[in-house]
Amino acid sequence: MIKAYAKTIQGLEEISIKEIKELLNISSKILYPGMLTFETKTLEDIAKLTYHSQSLLKTGVLLQTGKFKELKDIVKEIKSTKLDWKYETFAIKSTRQGKHNFSSKEIEHEIGSIIKGKVNLENPHTLFAIEIQDNNYLFGIDFAGFPLDKRFYRVKMSFSALNSIVAYAMIRLSDYKNILLDPYCRDGIILIEADYFNSKLFIHQKKLAYENFLKLKIENPPKANSRIIGFAENIGSLKNSKINISMADAKVELAKREVEWIETMFKDNELEAVVSFPPYICKRNKKPEVLNFYNQLSEALRNTLKNKGKLVINTPNPDLKIPDFKQVKKLNYQIGDLKSFIYVFEK
How far apart are CA 323 and CA 72, in angstroms? Predict the structure, then answer.
């Protein structure tokens, strides 16, 4: 069996575990926050996951993992690792999170001196990955080559743009199948990720790292028939969303609308799920304005959202409450030093 790793955003591991199970029919587990591991019989499974995943940052073959106190501990363990992998040229890329007395460049240099062969930084046959998080390390073979959340369609981004993996996680938590609304769509990220979830199409334009050593033919499953609608809150949002949606070639409905339009556009119990990153209290948005938005949203969904329908909200607010809705789930996630929350409410 081949050991593999899959990196995601800390706090969203359950979404990735679910996605891995759906794509590969393989169970995975948490190695440490944000890092999952699983075993598979083929490299093709890891490639397929890399190709299709919307919830992962990185994937690859796991060669060695453990805990450390100093850089020399990592070097010693990797040096003792049997590298049973044929490669023509190589490069090393490290990602480091936490406080350490060494830099990413230092560890790349140290590990690079262990691995024998010709270095090719521009287009290596094999890209070795070193993941450092606090006192955890992982050494592996990167199948992606770049952070998978860096979607090609993200051309026009506004202030506090939503991470694409977070958007996907929100969509999965909504349990939607047929009709989804984002009443405050900002740059259209939730709408695009919802369309990609339906289509299962390739969501990257960059060459994936595994393509240098593995040729893979992947068939896309049939696209689900659903309706995805977005309300742009202002002209800037409408413009940004149109550009991003066009780049993504996503099939969504978009218009500049206020939340009050929900009752006009949708019949009673027609909406299945509402997923959004609405305004939150900050210097730009005062508390009365934000509370008024949620009151209007609650009123607009009173009849249009079906019974047991989900309202999924992303916010930095640690104690969000919405009138007439019951909180059924709350996920805390972290990107770098920034902590935020995904709330799932039910009518």
Answer: 55
- Centroid of chain to Cα 228: 19
Assigned token pair, 272: 């299945």
Same domain, 192 and 124: no
In a domain, 305, yes or no: yes
Residue range 292-305, pLDDT digits in tens: 999 999 999 999 99
pTM > 0.70: yes
Is the Cβ–Cβ distance between 15 and 172 less than 8 Å? yes
Asked whether residue 78 is assigned to any structural domain, the reply reads yes
- For the segment 317-326, the average pLDDT, to the nearest whole number, is 94
DSSP 136-191: EEEEEEESSSS-TT--TT--S--TTPPPHHHHHHHHHHHT-SSEEEESS-TTSHHH
Counting every residue, how long is the chain?
A: 347
**Which contiguous run of DSSP H or E holds residue 248?**
helix 235-248
- Residue-wise over 207-236: b if at least 16 C-beta within 10 A, else e? ebbbebbeeeeeeeeeeeebebbbbbbeee
Beta bridge partners of 2: 40
The domain total for the chain is 2
Residue 128 sits in the same domain as residue 170? no
**Alpha carbon distance 28, 6 (integer Å):** 9
Distances 19 to 61, 88, 114, 131 between C-alpha atoms, Å: 18, 33, 35, 22
Section 275-280 average pLDDT: 96
| 271 touches 261 (CB < 8 A) | no
Q: Could you report the per-residue pLDDT of 6-57, keeping only the tens digit for each? A: 999 999 999 999 999 999 999 999 999 999 999 999 999 999 999 999 999 9
